[in-house]
Amino acid sequence: MRNALKSVIFIVFVLLASSGAMLSAAPMLDVPGAGASSAVAKVSDSDLEALQGQLNSLKQQVSQVSNYNQLEPPQDLVQSLIKEADRLSALLLPEQAQLQSQLGVLSPAPLAEATLEESDIASQRAALTEQKNKVDSKLKTLAAIKASAAELLTQIAAIRRSLLETEVTQRTRSILNPWFWVPLFDPPADDRQRLVEFMQQAGDTLHSVWQPGKRLLTSVLVIFAVVLWGLGRRLAERGLTWLCIHRMPEGRLRRSALALASVVATVLTAGIALRVLFFALTRELPLTPQLAGFSEEFEKIVYTCVMITGLSRALLSTQHPSWRLPAIADEVALAIKPYPRRLAAVLLVAVSVAQLTNATGMSSEVVITVRGLVALIISTLIGSILLRVNRTRRAMVVAGDAPEAGRTLAGVVYAFASIATVASLFSLLIGYVSLSRFITYELVWLFIIFAGFYLLIQLLKDSCEYLFSPRQPTGKTLKQLLGIGDTRLEQISVILSGVGRAALLLIAFISLLVGGVGSTLGQLANNTLAMLGGDGLRKLNIVPANLLHGLLALLIGIYLVRTLSRWLDNELLPKTEMDPGMCASLSTLFSNIGYALVILLMLSSLGVKWTNLAWIVSALSVGIGFGLQEIVKNFVSGLILLTERPVKVGDLISISGVEGDIRRINVRATEIQLADRSIVIVPNSQLISQNLRNVTLGGSAQGVATLELTFPLDIDPEQVRNLLYDTFCEHESILEKPAPFVRFSQLKPEGITLTITGYVASPRAVGSIKSELLFEILKRLGAAGIELAKPPPAA
């Protein structure tokens, strides 16, 4: 077991479920003090030999494993070895740079002056060169060790994947077969002997602390641990609650802080109590390898159970419903309340028994039977929780009460858990015991990840809203310090909140892939950091079926792209000063790029290597040449429209006899809305290749209202001209500049044609204004006794 400091770091990581490596149990070298004369003296050859020997031992240990769970300790130790190599390299790099600089000062003198060089300078140069060669040699050795360790990590990941696939696909007897349970009630003699030896080792350890003269201290420590877990947790939770109520601002941030305080109090007191209890029982006699391995696994199970109870208490909040973060009805919360403790107790006992069989190396028959028992108990308990929730919600509907808000998400979670539980029980019935155990463990792990990251996301969102609110002291201070307005402050809040939530969702997804109930949290942190760094994302394959992996990547990628698009449309872009057309163009461009990246990620998840895509490129070339040419041309034209923006959403355009407003620019075509509200779909390539009239591109386009009227030859042209001119000038929508004018267009035997032209503020208003002008002109012509020319009779 690790010391108290490492335990605190362990607990903090469980609470945050985010990246951050735990301290390893592997031995570390002392960091040189400030007064160290040379890093070379601190990194001796024996240290390098010890690292190499540890790496060779780990390789031998990995080559002999036969169980999936046996690879977890070596993987943690290899990661610790890499950290140690990095630490030693960091000690040597400054020394190497310093020696290189000193050698640069003492560079060889020119040949003509070589005889004048003093002998002490030459000797000093030789000493520095020798010392630098030693540093270079040690750095090369450390680099080789690190590379070999990284390769071993890759091999461990491959072996774990292979063993996991083997275990999950292994079929045994059904739990309905009586012979399945025989090894549990009548284990083989070898397994009994192993269990007796393990119990003897545990008894010797307990006997060493219960000898006369040591019983009092042992009793005091055990009682202190129990009191700390029971009474201490309540006191810590009340203390943190008091701090949140009296020191945190009233509102959503206080509610999130109260939930976090409940989890912190539960995990910290449990961790300290476990440290005290372990010290009380193991302070006299060092643990045997079997006991040490079992104690480490038992510690992880304890923290898992503590997280289940702590997160459930914080999110359900049955004693203070107003503090509850998720939208869960009181009746449903009260119905779920007793089950987290029952699930934690079942996990603590059942999984500990399963780990006991692994630690003692019992036969596969006993291991499979215990796994079946664990999976059956946990699946049954989870199924009872789902049935209780379903009955409660039905009773609420019958009573006329609406179920909890956010029913879509609650329904998805309920359906997923129900399907997984049914699949687990069905796997037990047909003999896939390891698969059933895997499903139940993943369900528990999914709850911890979902609940933990939900709490962190709510806390992050509430913190950003409070810190950057113009009504809060922090927001006012930022406004004065940065000299920005309320809108910019809200934009900063939305961006930081969105980026933070996206990062937490990514870490949560990675945690689901690289972790589980049977995984170490140090391994979870290191694998998360490696995947976020990019190298692990390329090399790590956790899910046995690449097809399922690719499907998950596709579904989650599409969900994230749509979520971020809605966030852009509803939260970020409305708070900017960009026009609606630019906002729509940016949203469409983001969606197109996002979907392209999702497709690339899906192909990568399927294991497709880009170096092997020559045949796909060839096929696409042929397809583009014959059938996809127009589609590709329209797609590229759509990208040009979104970037160069010769037309944008909201513009009034005219092309090929079609005139209307642009409503949407899609990947392949553009939607144009006509005056009658109908939609015309125009391929993007036509907007690029054909002559197009953009009426509103300049931003100050004016409409032209032109009327042509034909009058008889016997009218007074001056009277009619003045009448038409006055009608246009008196209309409120006709602009004064440019002024309207009347033009003598044609003189025919049928009559005189006059054209009157006026300008209006917007091209979109031309139709309605022309209609109003015609009504007014006909009214005035009738009052003046002037008639329009009649068309000649048909021949």
Automatic annotation (TrEMBL):
Pfam families xrefs: DUF3772 (PF12607), MS_channel_1st (PF21088), MS_channel_2nd (PF00924), MS_channel_3rd (PF21082)
Similarity comment: Belongs to the MscS (TC 1.A.23) family.
Coiled-coil positions: 41-68
Record-annotated Mechanosensitive ion channel MscS domain positions: 631-696
Signal peptide: 1-23
Gene3D superfamilies, per the entry: 1.10.287.1260, 2.30.30.60, 3.30.70.100
Localization (cell): Cell membrane
Species per Swiss-Prot/TrEMBL record: Pseudomonas mohnii
Domain Mechanosensitive ion channel MscS C-terminal: 708-788
Domain Mechanosensitive ion channel transmembrane helices 2/3: 588-629
The protein's name in its UniProt record: Small-conductance mechanosensitive channel
Bilayer topology: Multi-pass membrane protein
Residues spanning the membrane: 257-281, 368-387, 408-432, 438-457, 502-522, 542-561, 582-604, 610-628
